[in-house]
Design a protein that fits this description.
By secondary structure, the protein is an alpha+beta fold. It has five helices and ten strands; from the N terminus they run βαβββαββββαααββ. Helix content is 34%, strand content 25%. It has two domains: 6-85, no CATH class; 90-186, Winged helix-like DNA-binding domain superfamily/Winged helix DNA-binding domain (Arc Repressor Mutant, subunit A, Orthogonal Bundle). A hairpin with a 4-residue loop joins β2 and β3 (49-54).
Length: 188
């Protein structure tokens, strides 16, 4: 039975001076296979804006103005944890998506196609749906954070560009499929 990965957060108030501590925690926890250590740096800018950075994984950051609500920082950390859990490489069609590197590989690392952050997010979101189709509004909310009432062609533009990169024949997609009802699903 595989060990369950438990998230552990190390919050640094001065990231430049914590390299040794970061290395210790990374080797101690990740070496044992029981913890997935996330390093979060909190620093203060000259404008009294606090910057919170996720130092590994997806490299996310957030900006908080004073007074900083602890709940907002915890929400950021929780989102980072969820995001990191969805960042394992996965097979897609005849290729493989590596979300952390931001690439789609057809025949290995030498034949990798670079993906934008949103293209990766789109593929990861669809992959997380376990072969269930996703509506336009679900994708806009899940990937871009848009509400249903927003009128945009963002999704269609990203789908088009992504198909140009990952499909053998973008006009007859077999990987990123639009269903008859207008929903989207990943093909196998």
């Amino acid at each position: 039975m595989d060990a369950i990965m438990k998230p552990a957060f190390l919050i640094e108030t001065d990231p430049e001076s914590c390299d040794a501590m970061r290395a210790y925690f990374a080797s101690a926890y990740q070496g044992g296979g029981l913890f997935s250590v996330e390093f979060v740096a909190v620093s203060r800018s000259e404008d009294d804006v606090f910057v919170v950075r996720q130092l590994n994984g997806a490299g996310r950051e957030a900006f908080f103005e004073k007074p900083v609500r602890l709940g907002d920082v915890l929400d950021f950390m929780e989102d980072a944890q969820v995001d990191l859990g969805r960042r394992e490489p996965f097979s897609l069609g005849a290729g493989r998506v590596d979300p952390l590197r931001g690439v789609f590989e057809r025949g290995g690392a030498h034949d990798a196609v670079r993906l934008t952050e949103k293209e990766v997010d789109l593929l990861v979101f669809l992959h997380s749906q376990d072969n269930k189709s996703s509506s336009r509004s679900a994708l806009l909310a899940g990937v871009w954070g848009y509400v249903e009432s927003v009128e945009t062609h963002t999704l269609e533009t990203h789908i088009y560009r992504l198909r140009q990169k990952i499909e053998d024949d973008p006009s007859a997609p077999k990987i990123l499929i639009t269903q008859a009802d207008g929903t989207y699903v990943l093909g196998q």
